[in-house]
């Protein structure tokens, strides 16, 4: 195998180092030639046709030699084999690819026997390997070459040099003829006018096998076609896409992922000839997951599926009809991991979500995917899908660290860009393209299950925050301020964030912000999570929140760059400002604000009605109040949402 891993020029010179000559073939030149051979450039590529007279066969080389990058790639093809060898000296690694068998093996150069290492390259002072240079090759022949004049090879006028080389005490002799396009007399298509490129190397010799004592005569010719300076990029020195190499070194870990994110994907199934689009939201710390997709098995309407891992309940909402079904979270899915048995589940970690956990991914290098530089990792898996235990290949593409992804309102760094999954056994060939990936901690508002509570208990509340709206909201923005407010309410009420809906703000003068929201009752069914503490019903949660506010304990921590001590500003809820809002479904222009202890019907609210008022910093009086009431009445004209305790739809 070794002779196939080194440049052709070197192979021809070392083929008989261990042989014994049986008859003089030539006599080494006694003096330095009048015209020394030009050698090889530092970096080149060529197609080489190698013919072996005694064996009656020919095979092809595609050789890519990169001295500057300290690497080499050789692809060999014949009737008997189809192999590629890649030498990466900086990583001290050799890849041997057998295309006929579809296999790849990695070898550590440092662990190759020293007797073979001398044919792979030279050792630097720090003990590392470096690929041979053309001067290293010429050292083998410089003292014995002779210039023979002009010869015509393949119809090309060539300068001809001959080398007669004796190898050590063995007396082995080999005659090598080098033919280069004649300088200033013959011009190759891509040749630099100041350089000469090889046309052919012819080798012949006779030696005795030192083990069996048999005589072996050989005569080989190597024709160089399309010899030119190196033009290819990194891809030629990388293993093929989708090919996992056994014993490959892991030189770069897969990127770390945030605990909350959102993205859209395009899923291309090459076998089924289908393209699907999916939108997903994931928040590990809040225990929430959402996926929007088209329901192919049903009526084709778009489906929104929300998983609340705090309760183990899945809410499946038909976005067209508005119908909602509550069911236990099933023990299968991108976001689901079973606990103890198939009845209880938990949300998967970010590493588990992307199937990084427990999988040995190795770094391949950098490739251009969708016109963007990406870093690539690959792994072979035997445990996916779990129930089938089949082999599959996973190839992940992440944007390179130098790429900045603009998601419209934010800039992201290293993000998932593509996933390719292939399984011959399972007949899978799927490409998943990622779009709009961004860290989504504030996207908790996207997990809205309020449509499922139209016919269930829900109550609307409000309380006041002291402070100038412009000073409080302006520095961080409305989106982040909403999120910080929600987290404070959730912690005080001791409920899942998914039970807080329609959170919005109004302005009361210039020194107060009115916070309004809808609190949903506990989950309508028992989920697939073993809850250590039962959910609080809406009455108890509201009472706990009341106590926090009245005691001056409900506060919102807002980032504040002007505070050099803590870096945050504390916004405290105004004591005794907490009220339940009871809206009269028949009202045309009024809304009743009752004391907290008052009871009354609750029918939901539309999110964000007053957001514009926060930005404008004023209240529009009776006109705005009439608009709010009018908009709030619109859901009454929509078909009522149904919610049931047993699953009737499919995800």
From TrEMBL:
Q: Which InterPro entries match?
A: DUF7959 (IPR058265), LolA-like_dom_2nd (IPR058831)
Q: Which domain of life is it from?
A: Eukaryota
What positions does the domain DUF7959 occupy?
461-564
Q: Which residues form the LolA-like domain?
A: 32-227, 241-453
Its recorded name reads: Uncharacterized protein
